Amino acid sequence: MSNQRRNPVPAGATRRESGGPGGTERSLRREVGAPARPRPAWARISLPAMAQPAEGEVTTQQLLRWSEALAAIARTGLGFTDNLYERERFEEVLKVAADIRVAAGHELAAEALADEWLKIVGHGVAGYVTPKVAVGAVVGNDRGEMLLVQRSDSGVWLYPTGWADIGYSASEVAVKEVFEETGIRTAPVRLIAVLDGLRLGFTRIPLYSLVFHCRMVGGSLRRHELECTDVGWFAEDELPTPLAGVERWGLAAFAAIRGEPVEVAFDPPRHEIWRQPGEGSAASAGEVP
């Protein structure tokens, strides 16, 4: 991998220079009968976060999942009941969840964390705890390069992404985030991934990430002064480091940029989502509950 940035879209470039409307079009599809593309080195990286733990081993990722799930159950329960006995029980569950979260590496003490969770308990539907939603965009240019940003908060490189804003559709958020972070204008092509960030290990909060493939239609490259340290276009064999989770999404992203058919990526159900179903249940009979 290389940290050398390639910016074929200089500030002030015209749309023709940037491969936008009116620009030179060239097919990026691999011709029939052509040899298969060699896999880049980063695509051969092992996936430790997806590896199965040894029998009896409890991982930090499992602790995070159990803690967040218990905390969500407790906070949702508090949001839907006024019964004093039930509220006390849910608060106890919340304290247990805080203990687990601290064991997984949270910086706050368990009691302080439980208090923070209690402060954000809502009422009724507003109190039903669900994962947050982020929307990202894989954007390519007519050279087959991908648009990446370096996050100011972490120094990590990734495709443009941000929280889903109320009042916008998911694809509108993708277009908005790309323009705000990079100055590049895009048009959404299709959804290419729906990922569980907590399960994949690239976030420590419950998060679903919707990733769109977007086509560049104009604009000039510039970084968001607060959110991004750097932005640039990168070829498949010249990606910057550290690049978050590229071994999971990189091949599909570049295939989409080349115009190849790509299935929507998602996290398949685990064999045991929570626990082994009881005998005689619909799930144990092979039915989806």
Could you explain the architecture of this structure?
- The protein is of the alpha/beta class and 289 residues long.
- It folds into 2 domains: 68 residues, no CATH class; 136 residues, Nucleoside Triphosphate Pyrophosphohydrolase (Alpha-Beta Complex), CATH 3.90.79.10.
- It is elongated, with a radius of gyration of 22 Å.
- Strand 2 and strand 3 form a beta hairpin.
- The C terminus is likely disordered.
- It is built from 7 helices and 8 strands.
- The chain has a 5-stranded mixed sheet, sandwiched between helices. Strands 3-2-7 form a 3-stranded antiparallel sheet.
Q: Report the span from N to C terminus.
A: 45 Å
SSE order, one letter for each helix or strand: HHHHEEEEHEHEEHE
User: What do we call the CATH topology of the largest domain?
Assistant: Nucleoside Triphosphate Pyrophosphohydrolase
Q: Helix proportion of residues, in percent?
A: 25-40%
Q: Structural class, from secondary structure content?
A: alpha/beta
Q: What is the overall pLDDT average?
A: 79
Strand adjacency order, main sheet: 4-1-6-5-8
Could you give the count of β-strands? 8
Low-confidence region ranges: 6-32, 46-51, 279-289
What is the molecular shape?
Answer: elongated
**What about the largest sheet?**
5 strands, mixed
CATH architectural name of the largest domain: Alpha-Beta Complex
Strand fraction: 15-25%
CATH class of the largest domain: Alpha Beta
Q: What's the gyration radius in Å?
A: 22 Å
- Helix run count: 7
CATH homology group of the largest domain: Nucleoside Triphosphate Pyrophosphohydrolase
